[in-house]
Amino acid sequence: MEPLHCGTSPIVGFRFSLHPMSGDFIKIIKGALNETYTSNVWMHTDDVSTVIRGKQPHVFNVAKALTLHAAKTGEHVALSGTFSIGCPGDSSGDVYLDKDDVLLNTDDTSQYVSSQFALYPMNNPDYMAVIYKEIERAKEHGVWNDSMHYASGIHGDIHDVFAFYEEAFTHARTEQHPHLVMTVSMSINSPAHGGPANA
Questions:
Q1: 125, CA 20 to 30 Å: which among 74, 77, 101, 153?
Q2: Which helix (H) or strand (E) holds 118?
Q3: What is the DSSP secondary-structure string of 3-66?
Q4: Is the pTM of this model over 0.85?
């Protein structure tokens, strides 16, 4: 059996679960899906999670829009997911790579987000330097929150947070080490945030 090598496909994937803390969670999730333009990504939902795949700008655009539409209900919403690129064997869904770069979701509503992320530059022996560089980038962008075990805290307006995540995802991989995984967890409209003053 031949060993698997990191993929060269530019497909970015994001597998996530959205958890509205509400008895109307089905309505909130379906509403967010209905309000988000998803034609630029391949998407599949099962009984545990949803995956979206395609060109990087569209994957991050759809991920942000889904999260924002769920958050606009005012309910406490949690999201956890994993971004990945360069995974060995990741080739199906290439049809979505011919999409242009025009972003379909342009809602600029402000929304405070508290989140955590972790970077995994696969096969890169200098991975800690890569991670520290992106932490410095978070501080430069004003979204840095705190250091913690197994993750780093990121917070701020949802647009700034997602912009940082996409930038970190771009810079944390190289041609030599193209396989990158990034996990994110978000909490929005939590009573712990103390209301609009934190926005």
A1: 153
A2: strand 112-121
A3: PP-------EEEEEEEEESSTTHHHHHHHHHHHS--TTSEEEE-SS-EEEEE-HHHHHHHHHHH
A4: yes
